[in-house]
Predict the structure.
Amino acid sequence: MKQIISKAAIERLALYFRILKSAQEEGVEIISSEEIGKRTDFTPVQIRKDLALFGQFGMKGVGYFTNDLLNKIGNILGLNNHWKVAIIGIGHLGGALANYRNFANNGFKLTALFDKDEKVIGSKVHDLEISDVKDLKKIIKEREIQIGVITVPEAEAQGVANLLTDAGVKGIWNFAPTKLIVPNEIHLVNEDLAMDLSMLSYYISKN
Amino acid sequence: MKQIISKAAIERLALYFRILKSAQEEGVEIISSEEIGKRTDFTPVQIRKDLALFGQFGMKGVGYFTNDLLNKIGNILGLNNHWKVAIIGIGHLGGALANYRNFANNGFKLTALFDKDEKVIGSKVHDLEISDVKDLKKIIKEREIQIGVITVPEAEAQGVANLLTDAGVKGIWNFAPTKLIVPNEIHLVNEDLAMDLSMLSYYISKN
């Protein structure tokens, strides 16, 4: 399916995916739009409308087969592709992400870790060894990694983005608080923690 | 100033704040909208329009006084309030956030850390001791903490949100991938990493 859906709709689908994943783990085989509504903030009408966009998922008056719906939403979001992920910069944040269980829960496979610090190169996070960032291009190509997560300091982030681009990744998840320049064909998602914190500050100060 | 500005405008202001902070550190005393434009992705016209919303900041044909502008944007965003912050759940992510230098850069003061694990209670991150979550209410009140950061597992997040509400915080920054229910007067910002990762997956899979 190549239709472009709105950012807001993708966000809702990602939320449905999570809710359904929990329901699946609880052994819920059939789930109604009312139940999905109760677990999210959306009305059953909104949910049925969203899900109808992607074809006929449900059984009228009964509900949706959890596995089937999960599989279909996973396909739409590309989460069944088992994207391979590398993290560059294994400091506090990179280390926390290397331990982030939602990678696996969402079908991502953590496949390489990189750092430039001799003191951490060669050590392991779970079973994955931290490699020298000098070998980034070679390893990204060999392991067919599609997503790079940047958790290096601000001043080094563009350099790492260039290395990742050169190595042929398809997407970059950037945690460095800086504007990265990447070619159009590379998808960049910025995780801007300081900005969200500023947002919270603004709302609080208006009270 | 009690006027309500859009979420997009707040995001731009937060970005200007960061850019100006860097410029200040570089010793730039006067900065033009062209220069701010070069460091962001916005046109000088957009920038002048945004800044004009909040009164007359600049000198026509010269630029803005960096310190003055930084101070005014900081006031608008509430970043000059020196909000006191507590982190609850000092695992990988909570630990990474406890080491997050942007708290201080943005005028936030990390004032308490909490965990329920006997093994970490009493140990320190920099100079701040990890307290028992049982003492949360008392410590939040004593230290006049306004913001709670939730980095506990999903299943415990609502319980912690309730404790924070009861202790009287004004805002919650939630990293647990779950929908929290809090009273209207508490501002909640969700940091939904799994959702952003799903977004990236969607964009990549459309290529």
